[in-house]
């Protein structure tokens, strides 16, 4: 499972599943997308929840829903003095904190700006690359720079002192949260039963309406 939406969803779903099916055995493994895809290909995992759609051959993808990336910044000038959406050309001038280089959402953000504006993350004024969301938030609070975080993470810090949300003059950065499995390995009946349980028990309202996400992306 991924470190953001995977961690936000699966532990609670597994606990519920185990209460309903105490004889079942479920092992959770958290990781970044390349690591999880490699484990799928090696047959070490039956399924994975990823926050991007992998392009590797032999990986089957089913989109469960859509979430968005949220812009966070220190509650200080110039970030808290913006009166409207920040122009795209302003972002490279502001220091930026990025998440682990191979994360699925990192790829989503990079692709968003590259395809629309010809901007790569390497064009940004990167001042930090952290491999935990907690470290990113602490960097923002300390005033290092701005960052994008998954909605499921950013919501934990909605009322956090020292942090503000801001908008950018661009489309909402939606990303798919996908259930993935290797096409070469047929999942066991037990694994299929758990995957079906996940599909059927995603908390209501967790994902954006898919039509809304696709229209606004």
Give a written overview of the molecule:
The chain has 7 helices and 7 strands; from the N terminus they run H-H-E-E-E-H-E-H-E-H-E-E-H-H. With 217 residues, the chain is of the alpha+beta class. The strands form 2 sheets. Strands 1, 2, 5, 6 and 7 form a 5-stranded antiparallel sheet that branches. Strands 3-4 form a two-stranded parallel ribbon. Helix 3 links the parallel strand 3 and strand 4 (125-130). It is elongated.
Give start-end ranges of low-pLDDT stretches.
none
Q: Write down the overall mean pLDDT.
A: 86
Number of strands: 7
- The percentage helix is 25-40%
What does the largest sheet look like?
5 strands, antiparallel
Which strand-content bin applies to the residues? Answer: 15-25%
The topology string of helices and strands comes to HHEEEHEHEHEEHH
How far apart are the first and last residues' alpha carbons, in Å? 24 Å
Q: What spatial form do the alpha-carbon principal axes imply?
A: elongated
Radius of gyration: 18 Å
Q: How many DSSP H or I helices?
A: 7
The SS-based structural class is alpha+beta
Summarize the topology.
Blueprint: H1 5-20, H2 33-41, E1 48-50, E2 59-74, E3 95-99, H3 104-117, E4 125-130, H4 133-142, E5 147-150, H5 151-154, E6 163-165, E7 174-182, H6 189-200, H7 210-216
């Amino acid at each position: 499972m991924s470190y953001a939406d995977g961690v936000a969803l699966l532990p609670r779903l597994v606990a519920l599943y185990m209460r309903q099916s105490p004889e079942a055995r479920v092992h959770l493994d958290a990781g970044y997308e390349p690591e999880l895809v490699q484990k799928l290909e090696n047959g070490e995992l039956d399924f994975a929840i990823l926050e991007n759609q992998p392009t590797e051959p032999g990986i089957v993808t089913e989109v469960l829903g859509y979430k968005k990336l949220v812009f966070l910044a220190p509650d200080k000038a110039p970030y808290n003095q913006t009166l409207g959406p920040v122009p795209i050309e302003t972002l490279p001038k502001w220091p930026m904190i990025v998440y682990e280089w191979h994360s699925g959402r990192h790829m989503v953000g990079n692709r968003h700006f590259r395809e629309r504006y010809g901007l790569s993350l390497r064009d940004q004024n990167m001042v930090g690359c952290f491999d935990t969301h907690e470290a990113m938030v602490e960097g923002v609070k300390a005033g290092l720079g701005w960052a994008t975080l998954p909605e499921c993470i950013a919501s934990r810090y909605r009322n956090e002192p020292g942090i503000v949300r801001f908008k950018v003059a661009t489309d909402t950065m939606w990303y798919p949260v996908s259930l993935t499995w290797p096409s070469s390995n047929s999942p066991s009946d037990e694994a299929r039963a758990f995957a079906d349980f996940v599909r059927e028990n995603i908390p209501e309202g967790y994902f954006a309406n898919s039509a809304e996400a696709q229209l606004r992306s």
